[in-house]
Amino acid sequence: MKHTHFLRTTFLALGACAGLAGEAAAETYKWITFKPQGAGDAQAVTTQWLVDEFAARTGGEHKIEVFWGGSVAKTREIPEALAAGVGDFGDVITPYFPDMMPLNNAVGFFIPQPMGTAEVGHFIENLHATYPEFKQELADHNLYAFGFRPLEAYGLLCTKPVNSLADMAGLRVRSYGFAYPKLIEAMGATPVSIATSETYEALQRSIVDCTPIGPALARGWKYDEVAKYYIEVPLGASFGHLLAMNLDSYNNMDAETQAVVDQLGRDYLVEYARVLDEDAARVRDLWTGDLGVEVIDFPVAELYDLIDDAGIQGVRAEWIEKANAAGLPADEIVKSLSFAE
Q1: Which is a GO BP term held by this UniProt record (predicted)?
Q2: Does domain 2-150+239-280 correspond to CATH entry 3.10.290.10?
């Protein structure tokens, strides 16, 4: 609690300073991100695309300066830093903040689910356009989501071949979030909570045998150096990041600039999905070459049969209860997250 209070006090003080500076140069906005500038992945590349487009579409009148690599706020500090005005723009890893934004974490309660990257992005985009509760949940923390960055469709990257559920028995699988622990248990494996940054070593040292991930991220984190089997388990795309703004910064923009930001958010999803698909295809080509990763098909029916598991259904019911309590038509919303009968 002391640490949280210290962060809040620090961010508020910095935010006040940022506000004073902003009065003298209101045309320059600050983007705070955990991504390293030289990462070269779809997230970093399209962040730079968005920044360049913002300058171009405002005729050079406005620009965004990016503070890369957690130099202003670390991953778990970004929502609070944005809310305090330390930054104007930033990317928020939604699943890291389940208590702050339970409604906006909807997809994380429904794994496996049938949607890919672009579909998940449009799904969340539509929720924000249709139901005010999703925007209000963020507004309560002085945040505004102008765009969305889903992750790629996931399978399992493993250190040993997995051809069916029978091969999952006794394996240790990296777990996080809401649905994965119960899904992994239903598959007959043991969930192990490990941070993304620690997973390479965990795979290398056999602390875990598998991790849910997609090809592009597996290459980005170099997990495919130590785990050589990619299992095509159709887990669906996870919802990853909000492209967020400090709500006051957004409200203080003129209507024309707000329109540029909102349209950029919609266009960003299209560009990001395109770049991510190209990246994933490139990685799959590398896997068939020098990287030597074997891609294994998984019997889809075996996965679908698990959805009725009591643990998996319990997680889904948890989100439905939260949504109903907020006055949302949960049963209608979750149709998109369910496999067709």
Answers
A1: transmembrane transport
A2: no
